[in-house]
Amino acid sequence: MQTAIKLLNPLLRDLTDRQREVLVGRFALGNSGEGETLEAIGKRFGVTRERVRQIEAAGLELVQAKLADAPQCADLVEAAKKALKTAGGILSEAVLVKELNQEFEGVNPNAVAFLAAASGVFSRYQEDNDWHPFYYLDKGALKTANQFVGQFVSHLRPRKEVVLANAYHAHLKNFSKSKNVSLGVAENFLGASKHIHQNPFGDKGLTEWAEIKPKTIRDRIYLVLKKKSEPIHFETIAGEINRTGFDGRVALASTVHNELIKDSRFVLVGRGTYGLAEHGYEPGTAKEVIQRILKKHGPLKSKDIVTAVQKERAFKANTILVNLQNREMFLRMSDGAYQIRES
């Protein structure tokens, strides 16, 4: 298979040794790692950073002039331009490189970055706090993408609960239409943004939302319990977190248990088994749960009390029936129903 350096050799062939070495080093053309800094290359050559920059600029200028004599490289640049135009002027680096790889051998991110810098036909946006690395055709496309993403993030922020209820795509579709941006182009813009993320369960939303990109062990516990919609033993929760693989860090069962105890969102419903308070589970002993149910529903037969309690907590039927015999708290009526004994 053709390598990146082999693909680009026609452009590098007639450069001076120093120009070639600077460009290969700056763009890491001989490997898939990161390019060297001006300072690192300057130290190796015994020259200033500014001198390295000058050598790089002169080398790129010569490469640009040679593009027409390197058909495969020229075709690759044209293919990148076409892909970006079709995408609305913006594509994440990962997507553009993947598309180009389907047509050309030896294409890696470093080769594409080099051709962008040498040709001047398209540009690379360096990764920062808001964006993954991406390519764009012109400043107009860059401005459009920036505005669209910023407005969509502002649109989603106050609608968290609705969006998380499987409404992300509906909101994107409607919002894109309101901005006269096609859905495909909108997805390309958002695909380069760090503000939109998809969790391991396939839910999309804002990266800042713990349900989308959980940063702490408590957030991951919460997300697992929310997706499962039923109480789970703390050891199973740890296993689910590790199986899902949020970020590669291992969750210890003991750590999970400690976090479950500390957070009021999590309710102990049985031995080592926890559910979410928002799913209707409430803390308390068997006696307290019975009392709460009778206060809410009024007098109930023992079998109905057992059923109601077990919807909330994983108590055994005998445990519930034994607690019903507490005569100081519960009164058995003539029809066999129980009510709270008035003090």
Q: Care to describe what's here?
A:
The chain is mainly α and about 350 residues long. The chain has 17 helices and 10 strands. It has a 3-stranded antiparallel β-sheet, with helices on both faces. Helix 3 crosses helix 4, helix 15 (about 285-295) packs across helix 16 and helix 16 (about 300-310) packs across helix 17 (about 315-325).
Residue share in helix = 55-70%
| Average predicted local confidence, pLDDT | 92
Number of strands: 10
β content, as a range?
5-15%
**Straight-line distance between termini:** 86 Å
Give start-end ranges of low-pLDDT stretches: none
Question: What is the overall silhouette?
Answer: elongated
Structural class: mainly alpha
Over all CA atoms, what is the radius of gyration? 31 Å
The run of helices and strands is HHHHHEHHEEHHHHEEHEHHEEHHHEE
Give the helix tally.
17
- Strand order in the largest sheet: 1-3-2
Largest sheet: 3 strands, antiparallel
Secondary structure elements and their pairing?
Blueprint (H helix, E strand, L loop, with lengths): L3 H9 L4 H10 L11 H8 L3 H18 L4 H16 L3 E3 H9 L7 H11 L3 E3 L8 E3 L2 H18 L3 H5 L3 H11 L4 H10 L3 E3 L5 E3 L10 H12 L3 E2 H11 L8 H10 L3 E5 L2 E4 L9 H12 L4 H11 L4 H8 L5 E3 L5 E3 L3
Antiparallel strand pairs: 1-3, 2-3, 4-5, 6-8, 7-8, 9-10
Helix pairs in contact: 2-4, 3-4, 12-13, 13-14, 15-16, 16-17
